[in-house]
Amino acid sequence: MSNRRNFIKGGVLGAIGASIFPKLSIAKMDKTNPNSDNGFPMVISTWRHGMPANEEAMEVLQGGGKAIDAVEAGVRIPEADPESMSVGLGGLPDREGKVTLDACIMDETGNCGSVSFLQHIKHPISVARLVMDNTPHVMLSGSGALQFALENGFKKENLLTEKAEKRWREWLKESEYKPVINVENHDTIGLLALDKKGDISGACTTSGLSWKMHGRVGDSPVIGAGMFVDNEVGGACATGVGEAVLKTLGSFLVVELMRQGATPQEACEEAIARIVKNQNYKDMQIGYLAINKKGEHGAYAVHPWFNYALYQGGENQMIDSLSYLK
Ligand code: SD4
User: Fold this and answer.
1) Are 44 and 308 in contact (CB under 8 A)?
2) Where do the domains of the chain lie, and which CATH numbers do they carry?
3) Are strands 307-312 and 42-46 parallel, antiparallel or unpaired?
4) Could you give the strand order of the β-sheet that contains 234-240, starting from the edge strand earlier in sequence?
5) Cα–Cα distance between 54 and 45 in angstroms, integer?
6) Pairing relationship of beta strands 189-194 and 227-230 according to DSSP bridges
């Protein structure tokens, strides 16, 4: 065992250190990024709709509930909110006007479930939870996922709100597809929680990139891409252009970097560095959140305007993420 540790220290971590440690001082000095060890329970989630999601999740945790129940309860809030236009009900549709949803969930034992390309069900996260709890599988997709949901009592609904349909009809006039940096394309909720016991779970749910090709599935339902947790180490989730996250298996990468000794902040920065190295990052926003078992967190994005909600030490607050481009 000690040999293995030495190998990790001298080998893998040495190599990682070369690329992540120069950035460390920037993260540590930034006062807007209070990634200090405030302990748990804690909840962290992407974007402003993370605030009410965190509230809901924290209520479960304060009552002594498990992280897995908290993350599911939390993300159900934006899923049900028609004003949240990249998640669940009211999500912007694909180029054919269809709302197709992706979601995944993972608990402290490494169990996980996910659904992709699911239509007509307002709470894909709860279908993902049921895939995890009641099937021998990890992922159900498309009509099979819908069939499974209906068989288990979920209600079939029209998720395309008037407001979303109007936006789609406007888009149809030009039909120009640019998965670029703009606000409506980036509102996936990824949420991570540490419960009173210190166990960790995560959830991620989205209607994906608006105006995507029919059938397109992003990073959000893919365990290890849109979200990943390991109860020995911590957890991570992603938001933004899913293709870039899929190509680098971003959330898994962040957790593995933490396993090798990186702080959550260093791990998020390195995962963004991998994207910046090989992809046309100037046109894409990608943001990562990470937490470790101590309750420390990190956040990093390609562009400056990624923010997140952190509920820790009795306070729920919005924080602007650090970013590669200033
Ligand atoms: C996707 N990652 O489908 C999602 C979109 C997203 O915030 O995160 N929006 O690629």
Assistant:
1) yes
2) 2-323 (3.60.20.30)
3) antiparallel
4) 227-230, 234-240, 286-292, 297-301, 322-323
5) 7
6) unpaired
Output the CA torsion sign for 127, 129, 133, 136: positive
β-sheet bridge partners, residue 141: 116
Q: Cα–Cα distance between 241 and 239 in angstroms, integer?
A: 7
Residue 176 pLDDT: 76
Cα of 13 to ligand 1 centre, how many Å?
Answer: 30
What pLDDT score does 187 carry? 80
pLDDT score recorded for residue 283 = 83
The one-letter code for the residue type at 172 is L
Q: Note whether 250 and 288 are within 8 A (CB).
A: yes
Task: Count CA atoms within 13 Å of residue 247 on its CB side.
Answer: 16
Using one digit for the tens of pLDDT, what is the confidence trace for 26-73? 333 333 334 445 688 999 999 999 999 999 999 999 999 999 999 999
Residue for token pair 């499974």: 148
* Ligand 1 closest atom vs CA 242: 10
Residues 6+ apart with CB under 8 A from 156: 120, 121, 146, 150
- The C-alpha atoms of residue 42 and residue 90 are separated, in whole angstroms, by 28
Which contacts qualify for 174-177: CB closer than 8 Å, 24 or more apart?
175/95, 177/95, 177/211, 177/212
Q: Which residue has the tokens 């599935």?
A: 217
- Take residue 199 and report the two structure tokens written for it: 């166990």
Instruction: Please give the Cα distance from 147 to 121 (Å, whole number).
Output: 11
pTM for the whole structure: 0.89
- Nearest Cα residue to atom 3 of ligand 1: 208
User: Which pLDDT band holds residue 266 (cuts at 50, 70, 90)?
Assistant: very high
User: Is any atom of ligand 1 closer than 6 Å to the C-beta of 90?
Assistant: no
In angstroms, what is the span from residue 266 Cα to ligand 1's centroid?
Answer: 22
